[in-house]
Amino acid sequence: MKTAITPTREENFNEWYQNLIVAADLAENSPVRGCMTIKPYGWAIWELMRDEMDKRIKASGVLNANFPLLIPIDFFNKEAEHVAGFAKECAVVTHHRLKMIDGSLQPDPEAKLTEPYVIRPTSETIIGEAMARWVQSYRDLPLKLNQWVNVMRWEMRPRLFLRTAEFNWQEGHNVFATHSEANEDARKMHKMYAEYMANVLAIPVIMGEKTVEERFAGADHTYTVEQIMQDGKALQAGTSHDLGQHFAKSFGIQYLGTDGKLNYGWTTSWGTSTRMMGGLFMTHSDDDGLVLPPMVAPYQIVIIPITRSETEKELNDYSHKLAEQLRAKGIRVLVDDTDARAPDKMWKWIKRGVPLRVEIGAKEMEDNTLTVTRRDLGKSSKTNVAVEHFINDAQNMLDTIQHDMLVAVEKRNKTMITDVKDLKELESALESGKIGFFRIKYDLTTNEEFDGLIEKYKISRRCLDDQDPSFVFVAKSY
Prior knowledge:
Layout: H1 13-23, E1 27-29, E2 36-38, H2 40-59, E3 63-64, E4 70-72, H3 73-77, H4 80-84, E5 91-95, E6 98-101, E7 104-107, E8 112-119, H5 124-134, E9 143-152, E10 166-176, H6 179-199, E11 206-209, E12 221-228, E13 234-242, H7 246-251, E14 254-256, E15 262-264, E16 266-273, H8 275-284, E17 301-305, H9 312-327, E18 333-335, H10 342-351, E19 356-360, H11 362-367, E20 369-374, E21 383-386, H12 387-414, E22 417-419, H13 423-431, E23 437-441, H14 448-457, E24 459-464, E25 471-476
Parallel strand pairs: 3-9, 17-18, 17-19, 22-23
Antiparallel strand pairs: 1-2, 4-8, 5-8, 6-7, 9-10, 10-16, 11-12, 12-13, 13-16, 14-15, 19-20, 20-21, 23-25, 24-25
C-alpha cells in the first residue's frame, strides 16, 4: 500500500520521523550547527501548546517574567554541583566587539570581556540572584516565577525537536518558607504536566521520581513525566525539581520569619520544552504524515472545494460562508481555495495532520451536504452529512477525536509495559528485541551487572513507579 512517508515506521522509525518533519513542513536544520528553524506551521502548533500550558501555569499562582540571556560565569561558580551537569554543553561569550582583521571580521583582541558570560543553559543561577533581592520577609513568600525563553546547550548529535543546541521552553522557579510547601508544589507542577499532556496532547504519561542516579544535579528530588513512543522508546517530556536549600544557600535567598530570625528559603524548578513537540509527532503520526489532536491543531478543519471552472467562484464563496459559521463557534478553519489539484490539496492536509477534512463539490452544494473525513481514522471514517448537522456537531466531533486519540495511545501503551522478575529476564527480553518499558525491582538495578546492561543495550532507569516506588521503569530512550 502506498504511503506518503517512506520508509514506514516499521521499516525505519528514525528515518520516518525525520521525513515526517519535512513532509508536514514543521522545521528544518538551520545554518547554525545543531540548531533548527521552526517553520510557520510548526510554530503555530507550539503557540497553541504554549498557550494551553501558560493557562495552567497562571492558574497555579505563578507570574511570568523574563531574565537575561547572558549569565555571568561567576554565578555558575556559586553552584558547582548544579553546573557540573551543564559545563560541557555551555556556549561562552568572551568578546564584546568584532574587528576587521586580515580581510575578515574576527573577535577584537582588545574587546575581550573581563568576565565571560554563559548563554543560559537554564536559569536557576540568575533567577536565584534576583530572588535573593526580591525576598526579604515571610510576607514575600511564596514567590512563584516562570519564563518562556530560548536556551542553549551545545548538542553533538542533534535531531529536530528532540535534541537541538537551541530550543524553546518554559522554566518555572519558586521559593517557599518551608520544605513541605516546596515539595508539595514540586509534586503539584508534576501532576499539572501529566494532566496537560493527557488532556491537551492526548498523551498518557508514566509519572514517577527519578532515581538518585538520574536526579537533576543539585536537586533533592526530581519528578518526571515519561512518554512511550510508538517504537517503544522513552521520551522525558517534563521534570519538576525539589531543590531543597542548595540554591537558597548559594545565592543568599533568605527571609525574615515571624520569629524575627533570618531563614533560608526552599526552592523548586520545573520545565517543559519544544521537545514535547517531537513526542507529540512520534506518538500519534502514521505513515501518511502528521496526526494532530484538535487541541493543538493550527487548523482543526480544512474545507476543500472540489471545483470546476464554471462552479469555482460560487463553490469557493459557499465554502468561505461555511467556514465563517464554524469560526463563530470558536473552531479554527481554513478554506483551501488555491488552484492546486484536489488530490494534491487532500494529501497536503493529510500530511499536516488536520483533524477533520471537509470536501464540497457542486452536487453537494446543491444538496446542502458535505463529505467529512477524520484524520485519525482515515478513509474508513469518510461520511456524507448535512451542512446544518455538521455545523452543529463539529465541536462534538473534534472533542471525540481528542478523546479517542488519548484512548488509542493508552491501549497501545499497555502492550508496551512488561514486568520482569530479575536481570536475567530483563536481558532475555532485550536480547529478543522486545520494545517498551520494563518494570523491575529498583534494588536489582543498583549493581555492576545492571551497569553492564546499560552499556550493552543502551537502556536507562526512567523513573520509580509512582504507585510502588520499590519498582523502577527501564527503557531505551531519546
